[in-house]
Amino acid sequence: MSRLKMGAAVAGVLSLVAAASAVQAKQNSCDDPIVIGTTISMTGPLASLTTGWDRVTEALAAEINKPGGIMMSSCKKRVPIKFVIYDDQGNPATATSLHEKMATVDNVDVFAGVDWSFVVGPVSNIAEKYKIPIIGGNVATPALFERGLKYFWATPFPMTFNWDANFADMLKNVDPKPKTIFWVTQDNPVYKSVQDIWMKKHEAAGIKTVGAEIFPNDLKDFSSIVLKIRAAKPDIVYINSFDNVAVPLVQQMRQMRIKAMDVHFPIASAALQQQTQAYGGIEGMTSVASWIPGVKSDYTEMIQKVYTDAKLDLAATATNMPRFTAYLVMIQAIEKAGVVDREKIREALFKGTFKGPNGDITFDETGAPDTKTLVTQIQDGKFTVVWPAASSTSKLRWPAPTWQ
C-alpha cells in the first residue's frame, strides 16, 4: 500500500491511504475495493503504545489481498480490501472529526480498530449517525456498551469484568498462595474500574487489600507511594496503568528494593523493559497478552507472517492485538455477509461468533465481547505465557526470583 499525506484535509494530520486519490466506496459492489476506515494514535500522549501499528495494518491488508481479498458470495469472487488511516493523536475531538470525514468524504464501507475508551465513546456516535458498523480495539469500559447503539462492537483483551480472570485463576493455583495485594492505579476511568471490580473479587478469593493509591497521569516522583508499599509488605504489587507513565514507578521500586511474590503489570511492554533496564527492569513481572509467538490458534501463521512483514515485535506493543483482532473480526463479518452492505454486515456481527487469536470470540446483544487474556511472565528478558496451562509456553517462576 502506498502512503499519501493529506495535510490539506486535516492540518497536521497524517493520512495513510491505499491509493493516490480518495477512495470512493460503493455499497453492494464487487468491482471496487472494500474500504475500511481507522485512526491510530501515532502522535500524542499514547504514541509510545502504537509504534508500527500503521505497518501492521498495511501488512494485514497485503496478506488478505494475496489470494484476491475477501470472498463475496453475492458475486462469487474475491474483493480486495483497502485501509484509510489517519492519526487521531489520542484526541477524542480529532478522532471524531476524522471519522466524520471518512464517512462523508472518503466514503469508507466500515470502521475498525480505533482504540481507547475515551476516544471510541464519541467516535461510535459518528458510526451510529451514519449507520456504519464499527469494531473498536482497546475498549474495555462496560458503560460504552450500555448506550443502546446498533452499530458498535469491540474486541478488547479484555473487558474490565474479565480483566483478571486468568490471573485470578493462576493465583488460586500457586504455592505459596498470596494473601495481600497493594494497588497502584493511574487516574484513568478504565484502570479505576479495574481496581473497583477486581479488588473485591481478589478479596473474595482471600487476597486482602493492604493499600490502594491513585496517582495523576503526570506524576514523576513515586517515592511516597513506594515507601507505603515497602511498609505494607504486600505479596502482590499490582501496577494498574499505561506503560509510559509507570516508568519512574518501576525504576523507584527497584531503587528502593521492593520485595514481593509478584509484581503484576497488565500493560507490560518491551518499551517499559528497555526504559527500566538499568534499574533491573521488569524481569519476573507477570503481565497479560492476547497472543504471543508460540501460542497456537487458527491465525498463528497469519499473525506471525504479518508481524514479520511489518518488522514489529508483538511483545513490544502489548495493546496491538485487540486492534488486529478488530480487523480480523470485521473481515470475517464481511465474508459472512457475503456482500458489501452495511446492514448485512451489522446483521452478521449481531450476537455473532468469530475466530480470534486465542480462541472464539462471541458478542452479546450490546456488542460486548467475552475476550480473555493469557497471563505472561518476563523470563530472561522474554515474554512467555505461563497461564492457563493449556496455552503456556513456559513454567511460571513463583515467587518471582528477581523480586525477592
The strands making up the biggest β-sheet line up spatially as: 1-5-2-6-7-8
Count of domain modules: 2
The whole-number mean of residue pLDDT values reads 90
Order of helices and strands: EEHEEEHEHEEHEHEHEHEHEHHHEEEE
**Gross CATH architecture of the largest domain:** 3-Layer(aba) Sandwich
Question: How many helices?
Answer: 11
Structural write-up:
- Strands 1-5-2-6-7-8 form a six-stranded mixed beta sheet, with helices on both faces. Strands 10-9-11-12 form a four-stranded parallel beta sheet, sandwiched between helices. A three-stranded antiparallel beta sheet has the order 13-16-17.
- Helices cover 31% and strands 19% of the residues.
- The longest helix has 18 residues, at 320-337.
- Helix 10 crosses helix 11.
- It has two domains: 15-157 and 295-362, Rossmann fold (3-Layer(aba) Sandwich); 161-289 and 374-403, Rossmann fold (3-Layer(aba) Sandwich), CATH 3.40.50.
- 51% of the residues are buried.
- The protein is α/β, with parallel strands linked by helices.
Summarize the structure.
This protein folds into two domains: about 15-155 and about 295-360, 3-Layer(aba) Sandwich (Rossmann fold), CATH 3.40.50.2300; about 160-290 and about 375-404, Rossmann fold (3-Layer(aba) Sandwich).
Features:
alpha/beta, Rossmann fold, 2 domains, six-stranded mixed sheet, elongated
Please write out the topology.
Elements: E1 15-16, E2 34-40, H1 53-65, E3 70-72, E4 77-79, E5 81-87, H2 92-104, E6 110-112, H3 117-130, E7 134-136, E8 152-154, H4 165-173, E9 180-186, H5 189-204, E10 208-215, H6 223-232, E11 236-240, H7 247-255, E12 262-264, H8 270-276, E13 286-289, H9 300-309, H10 320-337, H11 342-349, E14 353-356, E15 359-362, E16 374-379, E17 382-387
Parallel strand pairs: 2-5, 2-6, 6-7, 7-8, 9-10, 9-11, 11-12
Antiparallel strand pairs: 1-5, 3-4, 13-16, 14-15, 16-17
Helix pairs in contact: 1-9, 2-3, 10-11
